[in-house]
Amino acid sequence: MNIQRFLQFFMVCTLALGLASCATPQNTGGTASATQVNDPFEDVNRVIFDVNLALDKVIVRPFAALYGELPGGIKDSIRNFLRNLKTPVILANNLLQGDIQGASDTIGRFLTNTIIGLGGMFDVANGNGKGIAYRSEDFGQTLAVWGTTEGPYLMLPILGPSNLRDTVGMVPDYFMDPFTWWDINSDKDLPTGIAIGRRVLETIDTRSRNVKQLEDLEATSLDFYATIRSLYHQQRENMIRNGDEAEGAPIPSVNFEIDEEDDGKAKAALVQ
Amino acid sequence: MTKITRRLFIALLTFSFVWPIQPVIAGESPDAFIARLAAGAIENLTSPDIPPEERQERFRAMLQDGFDLENVSNFLLGPFRRKASEDEINAFRLALEDNVVVTYAWRFASYDGQEFSVEGVRDGNRGQKVVSSTLQQNGDAPPIVIDWRLTPHGESWRIFDIVIEGLSMLVTQRDEYAAVIRRNDGQVGALIDAIKAQNEKLRNS
């Protein structure tokens, strides 16, 4: 593993992101331009999306269906265990966002679930959904909290929907993960195998939980690509706000007088 | 001084008659409206032995009564409404109503007694109210959080948007429709044709 190359890549991406942030307008929800999406690479993205869908159909979905046959309790334990492994990355991002409450929740969950929940297999901390719920944080969200806009929408091969900000965010997340350092400092194949197995299991677990919803969505969509793009954007915005509507921007930005205002602007432009 | 005070008092008094301090208070509270609609849906739509057409027509009646279809369809068309003709706007509204009916009516058949509870009401934009609610899921899965954005309508309310776990159905639909229109050189007619074709497909499936 060549760290230097990774760091170089990271720096280039950060620079690109900085430029993109300058070039893209701030959140314009509520105005007519809310329907204009930042997707300059749409043609390429759509091709990658089709390839991803094909791969999904041939490889991921059959495994997800097989995995779906496991008893619910086992699947939940697998997910809980995988989530517990993410603690260092989540905690680092809690702290980078200045979210002390979030950091203390993350530590509390980790200790409770690791000790009482048998190494993270049981989510005791969120017993019956009434305790501290799992909340994922990543560097893409941290960048957003720091004021970075999302940049152009990107459809990544295999990994799926993203944007420039979240794609760049994957690099620090990768290096904040102790497993990465174990892998880098070890000559053996075991850590690499664990890292790959973990990603694969995460993908299969998540996919198996969405099989029906995504099938439904695809069947009822006029433009599945655009639907996924919209949902990805909304989901990320929601995660960045930590699901708190009162704190952040209103969703959706409602504007009944969209046309009137638009006309007004058009007329004003004509007068000038 | 007294004169000014008296004048001010009279002015205020007059104003309080011409200008009601609060907008017309709706007869039904937002949470009661949602609770009534949910109870009605569970009673009329969920029985598994209703024939599909019958279920669709019952759902359509609820939709026309409980949804703010006019504002919804205006919002969905967004800036493209300006370029559309009056006929196209009406055709879009009808196709949209059909689409919601064929897409969602059959889903009520799979309802299995999951508990639905209204949690609270908060203020939204422009006189809207947001009713928050939860739908329990089977098994250990956490309940689904659903927010209902309502617009005032006479003595009651109408649904403008349904936000499920932070994902707005309205925004998703608008983004999708905008993509279809944009990929067809800005023609609203192309979107209407696409929705109609999809309605046929879903009706026969």
Describe this entry's structure for a reader.
The complex is a heterodimer of chains A (272) and B (205). Chain A contains eleven helices and two strands; from the N terminus they run ααααααββααααα. Chain A has 272 residues and is mostly helical. Chain A has a two-stranded antiparallel sheet. In chain A, a hairpin with a 3-residue loop joins strand 1 and strand 2. Chain A is globular. The C terminus of chain A is likely disordered. By secondary structure, chain B is of the alpha+beta class. Chain B is built from seven helices and five strands, in the order H-H-H-H-H-E-E-E-E-E-H-H. The longest helix of chain B is centred in the middle third of the chain and has 19 residues. Chain B starts with a helix and ends with a helix. The relative contact order of chain B is 0.14. Classes of the chains: A mainly alpha (272), B alpha+beta (205).
Q: Report the C-alpha radius of gyration of chain A, rounded.
A: 21 Å
Strand and helix order of chain A? HHHHHHEEHHHHH
Please bin the fraction of helical residues of chain B: 40-55%
Biggest β-sheet strands, sense, barrel of chain A: 2 strands, antiparallel
Mean pLDDT score of chain B: 87
**Average pLDDT for all residues of chain A:** 82
Number of helices of chain B: 7
Poorly predicted ranges of chain A (pLDDT <50, ≥5 residues)? Answer: 9-33, 246-272
Share in β-strands of chain A? under 5%
N-to-C order of helices and strands of chain B? HHHHHEEEEEHH
Principal-axes geometry of chain A comes out as: globular
